Sequence to fold (441 residues):
Amino acid sequence: MVPIPSYVARVLTELEARGFQAFCVGGCVRDCLLGRVPEDWDVTTSALPEQTMALFGGQAVPTGLRHGTVTVVSGGKGVEVTTFRVDGTYRDNRHPDSVTFTPSLTEDLARRDFTVNAMAMDLRGRIQDPWGGRADLEHRCLRCVGEPERRFREDALRVMRGMRFSAVLGFELEEETAAALVRCRELLRHIAAERLREELVKLLCGPQAAQVLRRWPQVVEVILPEIGPLVGFDQHNRHHCYDAWEHTLHVLDAVEPVPVLRCAALFHDMGKPECFALDEAGGGHFMGHPVVSRRIAENIMTRLRFDNATRDQIALLVEWHDHRIQTQRGLRRALSRLGAENLRLLLVLQRADNLGQAPVYQPRRQAELTELEKILEQLLAEDTCFSLRQLAVNGRDLLALGYQGAEVGWMLRRLLEQVVDGELDNDRAALLAAVRRNSGK
Ligand code: ATP
Ligand code: MG
Fold:
């Protein structure tokens, strides 16, 4: 079992010393028992928020007083300390109308979503578990505390959380919980985009993400209707042994569990149904689908409020996913266009894309990608020039030669292209000579 870190133990100790009850609670207890290092430590206490504030003085920040939460800064980290509470009735499938404090830990645990998240642990490692969370943990089972349908209706975010925990922990949903989750899926429409995105991205990065998506496409479709046309879509193409959705899931499974790659995998073929055409021999083609996929992916990411940098990076990978790099020059050009980090990610995505195709097409393409990766690492080790930053001349040089305004950037990019294509050496004298030739100066 993972021990309670000292900065959290300190908070519990001080609360107990003043006669309050205090426990670690929720996800951190679950993760401790699983031997996983918790992401964050939450504390639940019988102390009222103002009592916690008074006790911790300058180290206490009233971050959510309405819900009874005070953040205590301890050892340079924040620990959320929340008073035992019960939630009133829920409006809008997300927010309780009111919260009431209670002296009872058991009542506090009853408001929590799943039994494995409804355990508390004191300083001495004693577990409070009125809802059978420990047994469910042992059986790797996710079960709502109380009646599942009522719990999902109260707060529909739990629908996403259920799928997310299943994907991340590899737990099965208990039968009633699973049935209610599916019945309540439409309520996800009431949930704020940011919350949905957070849960979706965590879900996608779970080791069992593909299984969860495969089992509940109709639930995911409520927030991502764009996957609908992929499910069961026969590609009529000899490269593909799976329908478009199953292919997508294989690709997702084959990339590392980082948000950018998992999202790019999920979106990469969304444009296929729209671009589908059959040739005379009955073969399916998807001309231009990467650009359409990119557009669809951008719409999704804007709707779900991804930050701009992440959105652009994922969109770039989606647009380039089918780009075949066949020569050294092609590789250098791609490096110049995408940068080293994105090109590495692209090759990972392409490897996975191929692993989601019919097995006979795999050995050759995998070998080709291995070769490309090797050459790329060589180019990077040799410090080959592929960006304006590395070019042996800069804007000042061109200004000195009489270039002005937009011409400067244009000429620099042209020089870079020629260097990348091997037509010019990245040598200051050679580049300046080329500029002079070009301008007749
Ligand atoms: P993570 O590993 O992402 O931190 P977590 O289970 O700790 O997972 P948090 O969002 O940190 O999730 O919430 C802490 C605890 O608060 C949960 O374990 C659960 O007991 C309770 N909780 C959080 N969100 C909800 C919710 N929507 N409905 C009911 N209980 C919730
Ligand atoms: Mg947590």
Observations:
- The first strand starts at residue 22 and ends at 25.
